[in-house]
């Protein structure tokens, strides 16, 4: 690999991977290694996959999806159902769930091909609501309020479970960062909002949007499956508007379009902020959402402006990489 | 027959809700994602004001009516202030409005959840008790919604046709082609139009609160109903909105009657998804050029 | 108007477009030979951008045909036409949010250019266009002159047989104009064809082999810039609309 290629790779993929790895390693250091702490850390990383997969598509195309829990919920229930009803082992169930997520992503991609802005958001909202309602309509299948229980734990040891999820979380971040910096990533950016330039550059916008949405669904689905296995349960929360809302808020505050920003924001929020706010009792969700709301109003583009003040060496490298 | 009666009653509510949404979209090309929240605010505010006015949970019809009126006014104020604040703080690009609106929905839902928790909320009706209409027992309060809706819509029509501010709003409509991508302009009458829409939505929410289960996520369905009306009825002509709202209400009521209330919720969703698939461009949203 | 031989790069006939009964463009036609540069001029609102939209597939013509090196393009979506070899720029020279200058050119190159004959590398194109130093800057933050050149660079990176430029000289400074002239010379040498919509007539006159005059949706005249401007009906049409910017 030439020096220029190496520098480019370092900037776009290596950076997020390193930061992700550092974050993952610091979690047990900061939170401790009790089962409770590791549980929080694991869930935090799963949320990081939720938000970063949301940003993969939405941050690139500029659309605001309110239906990300559609991917997560279908995958979670898919996994739970094949384990509980069909006796699949985890090694088979988790990829199955991920595939369900990918299929959901594909479906949403098709439904939203020609829509932008508020219409896009509303269509995703409709899809998410449609699935959520189905959970109660067909409560025999989906278990109604209780959901679908998974009898046997996936990995017994909390540390091993954390390590596995951590590897997948950082790995998916790297993969998405790599895709983002590739031709597909550029084509995806050209496929949102005003698509004229994309079309004028020969980009098959419809196909690219579908691919982007499928990838987003795949990663979200993988995280959703892991979430179900971790909680040993798939219930309506995994497909609800609250989850979609939180993903949206965290991704926006983290840095719309930056992939790493939403990933980190989720980790910081679930692992630290939410824990800190627990002391407030009932008012906690209100305070949390209130803070996020204010953050979005003050900086609708997220904390990206902060990232802009990169150290000079970083920027010089990008200049060289671009030459 | 029952379906018809109940459907017409629901149509009154949906007309109130959808017309405001349709008005803002038709004239300003903005799909206001907070519209469902206005309905929710109206419902919860009605409870708040009725309790405040009466001093306790039980209240007479007059107090209830007062509460409803105040709730609608309060909702109008909320809607107007929100969009005024957006304009004043320069958050006027389409994505900003969208993002902050969605966040706003979530915040209001959390506020409601915090204040009321998960217990049931009882709102006193303006007219208590039920009557028989064509062999169907109908809560008297529900019978009020249709006349109230008609009156409000008549007042709205008058305002649009015969007042200067109404004309101004209609004039902007011609200038709005493709403005979906542009977002709101600083000087636009958006806050005022949203205020009117919020009033109607809040009124609908307040009037139907006695016969509904209030919950913090009740903002989603009215929003999707409003959107479905616009998808089905076309871009924002008031009469079109009325007709589509009525048809949608009838379809929902029929589905609820013959199947279940839960299934009825799908009607709006189907209208949205199928409607947009059949008319992908020219109806809503940004014009896409790769349609074949 | 039928000047092209069998090797015409671009050949369009009978293109029409209406909005609500009002004709925007009526029976538009054009032929481009390899290496030919043709201008399209006319007063504001004459339908020039609509003609570009119809040729490039961003709008559907009610009738007529568009042939690129013998291949019929009618019915093809715009991105497919680009892959067939027809590129265009836009009047507003928009940029894709979040993409750098280099990314814009890479996008076009990787999507189309690389698969076609005689493609130039992105670096070459940026050098030629004069944006090499701005490679890492975000496209949307460039001043208008550079954005125009970026739009041209992007279209060029698709290695088009036919390039349609929508007011490329508007807002350009002198050194940028010279760059553009150089690019047009390159295109000519490579036997690619160019159709340029322009208001800055003197600049256009220096590069175009011939011009078409479009007035109120109809082709009114055709010939060299000199001849066309001396045509009294053309002068009347322009005067009506407020005069051309001949000296601009």
Keywords:
heterotrimer; B: about 290 residues; mainly alpha; two-stranded antiparallel sheet; 2 strands; C: about 250 residues; alpha/beta; Rossmann fold; four-stranded antiparallel sheet; 9 helices; 10 strands; globular
Protein chain pair with the most extensive contact, residues per chain: A-B, 47 and 51 residues
The unreliable regions of chain B are 174-184, 282-292
CATH topology of one domain in chain C: Rossmann fold
Q: State the distance separating the first and last CA atoms of chain B.
A: 44 Å
> Could you report the average pLDDT of chain B, rounded to the nearest whole number?
79
> Count the strands of chain C?
10
Q: CATH superfamily of one domain in chain C, called what? A: P-loop containing nucleotide triphosphate hydrolases
Low-confidence stretches of chain C: none
The CATH architecture of one domain in chain C is 3-Layer(aba) Sandwich
Q: How many angstroms does the end-to-end distance of chain C come to?
A: 28 Å
Tally the helices of chain B: 10
Main sheet properties of chain C: 6 strands, mixed
| Range of helix content of chain B | 55-70%
Count of DSSP-assigned helices of chain C: 9
Tell me the fraction of residues in β-strands of chain B, as a range. Answer: under 5%
Major sheet of chain B: order of its strands? 1-2
CATH domain class of one domain in chain C: Alpha Beta
User: In oligomeric terms, what are we looking at?
Assistant: heterotrimer
